[in-house]
Design goal:
About 40% of the residues lie in helices and about 10% in strands. It is built from 7 helices and 6 strands. β3 and β4 form a beta hairpin.
Length: about 160
């Protein structure tokens, strides 16, 4: 089996390798992405720059919101389905920083930019939806259930509304 040759010259590869090294990628990941040799091109660049070897294993997510976006899948109708862990009550959860976080509460904060009041529930009827636009807390539910003025029924009521 032939090994992939370097697709671009060293003058172009080294700055790209440098950028990826500073971003924290491993030698092998950079070699795979750029189709270069990990030992000669990437390791030598890492040594020349004095950048320590990348730590093995998975990297922690930057924020709980990042984890939320990794664990949702868009649907054809604009909603988001949860693909991550669910607790024993079947509620979607994310573990970050040693704590469990409700995916509903994360989605609410993403959409509204504030902490929710009380329980957060999806306002849509779609099973398993965690789309930020669909989340509602107690304040939003109470505001939505404020009594509307009674409306008369029948064709006369419709006619009077059209006149107004």
């Amino acid at each position: 089996m032939n090994r992939p040759r370097e697709l671009v010259g060293p003058a172009i590869v080294i700055p790209v390798v440098t950028e990826l090294l500073r971003a924290g990628l491993s030698d092998r990941a950079i070699a795979r992405e750029l189709h270069v040799d990990a030992k000669t091109t990437v390791r030598r660049t890492r040594t020349a720059l004095g950048i320590p070897a990348a730590r093995p294993g998975k990297r922690a997510a930057g924020s709980v919101e990042d984890l939320f976006w990794f664990r949702v899948q868009p649907t054809h109708d604009g909603h988001l389905t949860w693909t991550g862990h669910r607790n024993r009550n079947r509620l979607p959860t994310v573990r970050h920083g040693g704590r469990n976080h409700s995916a509903y509460r994360i989605a609410f904060r993403i959409e509204h930019g504030r902490e929710p009041e009380g329980h957060v529930t999806p306002a849509c009827e779609r099973d398993g939806c965690v789309a930020p636009a669909c989340m509602q807390d107690r304040r939003i539910r109470e505001h939505a259930t404020v009594k509307q003025p009674p409306q008369a029924a029948g064709p006369i009521a419709a006619t009077s509304k059209q006149v107004l």
